[in-house]
């Protein structure tokens, strides 16, 4: 091979080396392609928490607006809201409420249960079948200085002055452990455990508390057997309400279904007209029989209203 051919091959190889070097330099300057990760849908922490919380809530049927009594509910009147804990006995489906007729006025936002469609006013739904709700007039002294609250238990005391119809002044407990249903316009719970009056704002509650302090009436739950006794006591003399201790747990026992024994009620009612016998001193004396050999006979009690006299046959 001559020198010319050798020089030509060397030139070609040199040019190829220059081209390869240049091309490698160009490729080294370009950024390497980065593999893109799949784009996941953006889910915030708040949305995740809201979804998890929604799954734990329970459906409750509530009213969308005020409903007057004796008006059948329609689909436009109710909706379903999810609460953290459903009230006991509440309806969970609108089909359970549509077509039913409430017997009293219901306000917007009220959750519905079977009691929403039961007959009876506020007081009628706060007592049992063997009780009666009776209103007693009070003042600042009689009503425990305005500190009575619905749910308290009180003893009803009677004071009788000495006068022509009452030989001796006396004081006694005519009705022990009566449950307070309401003070003025403030009432407690109904038999289903719900507030008898709708929830109030902070401002309205303050106004209600002020009216309660100045209330002139107290509503008591009186056993039917003692109803006449309380009525006579209100007309016979001066009443006082003595508040009993909450440590007795009487309200808890009431809600647990415990009732006063019939023997206790009969014992209290047995002294219905005998107010004059409960004075601090001795009551009316039986006239003595004359003669040393006279035979003692039992006296006969004669009752006229709240007056008691004894006569021998």
From TrEMBL:
Gene3D superfamilies cross-referenced by the UniProt entry: Antifreeze-like/N-acetylneuraminic acid synthase C-terminal domain
Segments crossing the lipid bilayer: none
InterPro entries: Pilus_assmbl_Flp-typ_CpaB, RcpC_dom, SAF
All residue ranges annotated as the SAF domain in the record: 58-118
Designated name of the protein: Flp pilus assembly protein CpaB
Originating organism: Pseudomonas granadensis
Gene: cpaB
């Amino acid at each position: 091979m001559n020198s010319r051919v050798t020089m030509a091959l060397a030139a070609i190889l040199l040019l190829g080396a220059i081209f390869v070097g240049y091309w490698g330099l160009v490729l080294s300057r370009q950024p390497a392609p980065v593999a893109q990760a799949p784009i996941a849908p953006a889910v915030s922490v708040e949305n995740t928490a809201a979804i998890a919380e929604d799954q734990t809530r329970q459906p409750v049927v509530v009213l969308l607006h005020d409903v007057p009594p004796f008006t059948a509910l329609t689909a436009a009147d109710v909706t379903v809201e999810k609460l953290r804990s459903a009230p006991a006995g509440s309806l969970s489906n609108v089909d359970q409420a549509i077509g039913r007729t409430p017997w009293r006025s219901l306000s917007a936002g009220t959750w519905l249960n079977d009691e929403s469609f039961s007959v009876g006013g506020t007081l009628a739904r706060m007592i049992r079948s063997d009780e009666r709700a009776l209103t007693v007039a009070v003042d600042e002294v009689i009503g425990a200085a305005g500190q009575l609250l619905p749910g308290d238990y009180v003893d009803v005391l009677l004071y009788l002055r000495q006068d022509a119809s009452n030989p001796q002044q006396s004081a006694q407990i005519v009705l022990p452990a009566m449950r307070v249903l309401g003070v003025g316009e403030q009432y407690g719970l109904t038999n289903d455990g719900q507030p008898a009056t709708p929830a109030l704002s902070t401002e309205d509650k303050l106004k209600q508390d002020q009216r309660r302090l100045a209330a002139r009436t107290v509503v008591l739950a009186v056993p039917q057997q003692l109803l006449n006794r309380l009525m006579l006591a209100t007309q016979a003399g001066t009443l006082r309400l003595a508040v009993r201790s909450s440590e007795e747990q009487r309200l808890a026992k009431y809600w647990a279904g415990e009732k006063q024994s019939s023997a206790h009620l009969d014992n209290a009612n047995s002294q219905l007209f005998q107010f004059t016998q409960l004075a601090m001193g001795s009551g009316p004396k039986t006239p003595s029989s004359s003669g040393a050999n006279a035979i003692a006979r039992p006296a006969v009690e004669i009752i006229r209203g709240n007056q008691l006299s004894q006569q021998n046959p």
